[in-house]
Specification:
Largest sheet: 7 strands, mixed
Number of helices: 13
Number of domains: 2
Shape: globular
Distance between the termini: 31 Å
CATH architecture of the largest domain: 3-Layer(aba) Sandwich
Mean pLDDT: 94
Strand content: 5-15%
Low-confidence stretches: 388-397
CATH superfamily of the largest domain: Type I PLP-dependent aspartate aminotransferase-like (Major domain)
CATH topology of the largest domain: Aspartate Aminotransferase, domain 2
Structural class: alpha/beta
Bound molecules: pyridoxal-5'-phosphate
CATH class of the largest domain: Alpha Beta
Helix content: 40-55%
Strand order of the largest sheet: 2-8-7-6-5-3-4
């Protein structure tokens, strides 16, 4: 048989999925592994999905998605961030942010174009850039700087082949947010080098310590930015697979062209449910956000008291504590913690070299689970006692 596509062949499977699959096959595991709300979708949204099915909304929609939904998104972005997007030409409904990201990269990149991404970053960014023919260029960010993306360091990574900068704040996996001032500097660098910005703002509503800054709302950013967002996190709708992309008409038209040949449209039923979420779900969003914030404060205190050095994450629903003092790699630590104490976390190196020395813990789970996880992590750290674990018996099958 002839070989499969080289880029795909050379891409390792996602480190997150591996831990998730192993944790699922074991008894009594507390999973802090997967970045997914533990809430079910609010009832009014589920009910609207049921209503849509009962009333026969089972056809395709227009390629761009239901106009009513695009109008509602335009209104919402205007009220939250004073953004101005024309629902007719500047908003596309996608199958989650995941499809929006893929479309943006394919619409913007030519073979060999470089895309700057912070390191560590969400696991899909590097493979998606490569699948689109691009070359990812990682710019390190460090816990000592609260994972701030340093604009000068970023500028030094720009070459004549750089086409775009891909950002995500609040960030997965670190929970970091950026000051408005820092984002302004990043936009200034992008403008000076005529680069596109792709801003994945999927955690925008989960910004706890400072108001969220939407990148296209910054001076000089709108014309060069593709804004990606969706319903998965804020509305607890991961399984519905609904997102949206906003940007200048030529970019959205190009993305729509790919979408119309490859996807046709996002699920009609899910679009109807998303319409209900955006029009009537604000109270639910605020209640969930308040709850995540409670868990965040409890969990970070708990991790520190259990012997891990954990900075306060200011957004998303992840803590990214350091495990450096244990002398173990993040993979060794995560494997041993899972095998010995049945707590699933993701090794930081799954997100890039700068993630090494950390583990990602999602606190989108009940306070009871968090309390038990902290007890187990404390016991595990006490057993480690600052010494290297015997690797035998601790490694995963
Ligand atoms: C940063 C980031 N972007 C995108 C996604 C995928 O979002 P969606 O469910 O809308 O495809 C995730 C999911 O974890 C994420 O963390």
């Amino acid at each position: 048989m002839k070989p499969l596509n080289e880029v795909v062949q050379n891409t390792p499977p996602s480190g997150i999925r591996r831990f998730f699959d192993i944790a699922q096959s074991m008894e009594g595991v507390i999973s802090l592994g997967v970045g997914e709300p533990d809430y079910v979708t609010p009832w009014r949204v589920r009910e609207s999905g049921i209503w849509s099915l009962e009333h026969g909304y089972t056809t395709y929609t227009s390629n761009a998605g239901l106009l009513e939904l695009r109008q509602a998104i335009s209104k919402k972005l205007n009220s939250l961030y004073q953004l101005d997007y024309d629902p007719d030409k500047q908003i596309l409904i996608t199958v989650g942010v995941s499809e929006g990201l893929d479309l943006a990269l394919r619409a913007l990149l030519n073979q060999g174009d470089e895309v700057i991404v912070p390191d560590p970053c969400y696991v899909s960014y590097v493979p998606c850039i490569q699948f689109a023919g691009g070359v990812p260029v990682r710019v390190p960010s460090y816990s000592e700087e609260e994972f701030r993306l340093d604009p000068e360091r970023m500028e030094r990574a720009i070459t004549s082949k750089t086409k775009a900068i891909l950002l995500c704040y609040p960030a997965n996996p670190t929970g970091a947010t950026q000051t408005r001032e820092n984002l302004r500097k990043i936009v200034t660098v992008a403008a000076a080098h005529d680069l596109y910005l792709i801003s994945d703002e999927i955690y925008d509503r989960l910004s706890f310590t400072r108001p969220h800054t939407s990148i296209p709302a910054l001076t000089g950013a709108w014309d060069r930015t593709v804004l990606l967002n969706g319903f998965s996190k804020a509305y607890a709708m991961t399984g519905w697979r609904i997102g949206y992309a906003c940007g200048p008409s030529p970019i959205i038209e190009a993305m729509t062209k790919i979408h119309q040949y490859t996807m046709l449209c996002a699920s009609h039923l899910a679009q109807r449910a998303a319409l209900e979420a955006i029009n009537g779900g604000e109270e639910d969003v605020q209640a969930m956000v308040a709850d995540y914030d409670r868990r965040r404060r409890y969990f970070v205190r708990g991790l520190n008291s259990a012997g891990l050095d954990c900075q306060e994450p200011s957004g998303a629903f992840y803590a990214f504590p350091s495990i450096r003092h244990t002398g173990l790699s993040s993979l060794e630590y995560a494997e041993a913690l899972l095998m010995k104490e049945r707590v699933a976390v993701v090794p930081g190196n799954a997100f890039g070299d700068c993630g090494e020395g950390h583990i990602r813990c999602s606190y989108a789970t009940s306070l009871d689970n968090l309390e038990e996880a902290i007890d187990r992590i404390r016991r595990f750290n006490d057993q480690l006692g600052g010494h290297r674990l015997e690797k035998t018996g601790a490694a995963l099958p």
